[in-house]
Amino acid sequence: MSPTHATQAGETQSRPRVEGEREQEILDATIDILAEVGYDRLTMDAVAARAKASKATLYRRWNGKAQLVIDALISEKEPMTAPDTGSLREDLVGTFCGMGGLTDTKQIAIFGSVVTAMSRDPEFAETFRRDFIGPKKAISTELFRRAQERGELRDGLDLELIALALPGIVLHRTFLLGDPPTPELIAKVVDQLIIPAVTRG
Fold first, then answer.
1. Rounded to an integer, what distance in angstroms lies between the CA atom of residue 120 and that of residue 64?
2. Measuring CA to CA, how many Å separate 77 from each of 4, 20, 31, 85, 128?
3. Measured between alpha carbons, how far is 142 from 191 in angstroms, rounded to an integer?
4. What's the DSSP call for residue 38?
5. Mean pLDDT over residues 153-162, rounded?
6. What are the pLDDT digits (tens) for 36-58?
7. Helices marked H in 97-192 — which ranges?
8. Is 1 helix (H, G, I), strand (E, B) or coil?
9. Residues 6+ apart with CB under 8 A from 75
């Protein structure tokens, strides 16, 4: 972490920045509140209180909660790990049951907390899709691309489309039907739906 740079004598002060560990404390407080109450009920006041910072400090760095939340999400997200086992089935289970995957309860709580914000704030939605969802989609697509190169997949598949099937099904069941995203559920979706749909049989 870089230390806070002191303003040199005679230097005109521009917008101060919150840096290093202090910035991370604010971002961590943002994530905690986001997971607890959701985007709509998160306020700059609440973040300032949780981080033991002044609201002025937050506004010197972020122009509002949308920008703050995006920065917090980017700093927080756990990278999905993509094992290369030589088997599409094992790659899918290992990836989506691993850190940053569908069984990561904090990641799922964060995703649920911003769904309404995405429908009302196009700028927030664009940034969230690019910086939070984009890397996960790329890893999922890569799993299917590797399987295709190994000859596991049947011909004519749209990999960009099929890569979203597993998270789409699991998240639908989680948020609409109330089924927790357990390793057992993920394995069942992989074995009964994904693998039969995409492999050569």
1. 15
2. 24, 18, 10, 24, 12
3. 19
4. -
5. 94
6. 888 888 999 999 999 999 999 99
7. 105-120, 122-128, 134-150, 159-162, 165-176, 183-189
8. coil
9. 24, 27
Amino acid at 160: E
79-198 homologous superfamily: Tetracycline Repressor, domain 2 (1.10.357.10)
The answer to whether 61 touches 47, Cβ cutoff 8 Å, is: no
Give pLDDT, residue 80. 67
Q: Which amino acid is at 161?
A: L
7, pLDDT greater than 50:
no
Q: Is the pLDDT of residue 9 over 60?
A: no
Q: Which helix H or strand E contains 29, and what residues bound it?
A: helix 20-37
Token digits of residue 163:
């890569």
Matching residue, tokens 């004598």: 9
Phi-psi region of 59 (alpha: psi -120 to 50; beta: other; left: phi over 0): alpha
Q: Under CATH, what is the fold of the domain 20-75?
A: Arc Repressor Mutant, subunit A (1.10.10)
Q: How confident is the model at residue 75 (pLDDT cuts 50, 70, 90)?
A: confident
One-letter amino acid for residue 53 of the chain: A
> What's the pLDDT at 83?
84
Residue 153's DSSP bridge partners are 199
Q: Where does CATH 1.10.357.10 sit in the chain?
A: 79-198
List where CATH 1.10.10.60 sits in the chain.
20-75
Name residues whose C-beta falls within 8 Å of residue 81's C-beta, 6 or more positions apart in sequence: 94, 95, 98, 99, 100
